[in-house]
Amino acid sequence: MEKGEIQNQTVSNEITKTDVRKGWFRWYFANAISHSFDRYLASALLWALMPMLRKLYPDKKELQKAYQRHSIFYNTQISWGGGTILGIIASLEDKRSKQLKNGEETEEIDDLINNTKAGLMGALAGIGDSIDSGTVQYIFIAIALPWAQKGMAIGAIAPFIAFASYQILMGLYFSLLGFKLGRQAATEIVSGRRMKGLVEALSILGLFMMGVLGANYVKVSSTLKWTISGKKFVLQDILDTVLPGLLPLVAIGAVYFYFIKKDMKITRALVALTIILGILGALGIL
């Protein structure tokens, strides 16, 4: 028996959950370090997969092919996209290794691996960015904002720690889900009942926190006064009695509907809002 055959028998070449967990942490910490113009995050993905690929392919030629497969352009969101795709690719590479052992052709699964990455990285990145960057991180900021206003250092540190911890846990969950379900994991994330419930809950919580922030930190008040039959009336006092916080709500609502109509043109919205408020202030309305 050849030395290489003895070595192949003594080394287990099946991917385990522990391997996927280690791969996730390698991906998380290397995510943007290797960022390049032509390959974007491909080097980080390859570095995350390297221990698993070495385990699956003791043959140097097959290992070289695997390295080349995962060196092409790759870009996605760190947890929802990166975690899920990492788990799916680990599952597909494990399947490919078994096919190779059985002497089966691997061209079809090679294309499947490449197409899976290309097809999922953009779609899952869109979901992850809108939930993580668009909702969750602002919830943590909203919670810590009162501490920051009081001059407490934890107000600046807590959102970063909380958001990083959240992404680590979510990415770990998605990577294991991807490994368990294979390509079905993407369907589970996009249309699964649990994921829909999670997304809906985060959306409601995000809107709730934005309402809290708007009520506490958006200050718009009226200075308009008038006299009728010798009695003075102050508009802001009337609003505070009938509908407290109405003017901040109107300002936030106007900006929100502007973004819906004009597609998040933030600079233009800030300029327009400044001009409108300046005119209303000059007229003595605000």
Structure explained in plain terms:
The chain has 286 residues and is an all-alpha fold. The chain has 2 domains: 9-209, no CATH class; 220-282, no CATH class. Helices cover 75% and strands 3% of the residues. The protein has helices spanning 3-10, 17-30, 42-56, 60-69, 80-101, 107-149, 154-181, 184-191, 193-217, 235-242, 246-262, 266-282, and strands at 225-228, 231-234. Strands 1-2 form a two-stranded antiparallel sheet. A hairpin with a 2-residue loop joins strand 1 and strand 2. The longest helix is centred in the middle third of the chain and has 43 residues, at 107-149.
Summarize the structure.
The chain is mainly alpha-helical and 286 residues long. It has helices at 3-10, 17-30, 42-56, 60-69, 80-101, 107-149, 154-181, 184-191, 193-217, 235-242, 246-262, 266-282, and strands at 225-228, 231-234.
DSSP helical segment count: 12
Secondary structure: helix percent: over 70%
Roughly what is the average pLDDT, rounded to an integer? 79
Give the C-alpha Rg: 27 Å
The separation of the N and C termini measures 90 Å
Shape: elongated
Protein structure class? mainly alpha
Note the topology.
Blueprint: H1 3-10, H2 17-30, H3 42-56, H4 60-69, H5 80-101, H6 107-149, H7 154-181, H8 184-191, H9 193-217, E1 225-228, E2 231-234, H10 235-242, H11 246-262, H12 266-282
Antiparallel strand pairs: 1-2
Helix pairs in contact: 2-3, 2-5, 2-7, 3-5, 5-6, 5-7, 6-7, 6-9, 8-9
